Amino acid sequence: MRITSGTLKNKKINAPNGLQLRPTIEKVRQAIYNTLEHGLGASDFNIFSSTVADFFAGSGAMGIEAISKGASHVSFFEINKKHLSVLKKNIESLNLLNKCQIYYGDSLSFMSSLSPFDLIIIDPPYGKGLAQGSINIIKKFNLIKGSGIIVVESDHKENLSLPVEFNLIKEKVYGKTKVSFINWKDK
To answer: Which pTM value belongs to this model?
Structure first.
């Protein structure tokens, strides 16, 4: 795998086979960041100097891509020890330690102590209700800034039930992956 754009474009990152890791493919990552930059209409979102949370980080590809595009800081959340090892190696090999914080364990256990983010990326294992649970926790702990965006990757058949305070800006399907872009309705 490689980073698709920005200052780290074409740098390789690891995502070893056999770890039950489903990293976001390059085409989808590129489409997500293109949409964030150009495809959200009147949204005030800007990746440059943003703070990002990468829930279910896996290899860290999505968060590393955000740094490459200009994010100032990424908080990575990962519960799987093997995935965590790959994530740490990717961050170290790209010399990104000063732009990252890694949280090991269930991301829900850290939520009450976090400050709001500009961008939250949610890419959980499919079919376990984790995307829905994460959205509910983000609302409960007010983890997204007023002009912030939540990006959710889910199975193309999964339907999210958004809290009334949230707005579905855009939804796109890439094969078996659905990508939803969400923000606050009135903040």
So the answer is: 0.93
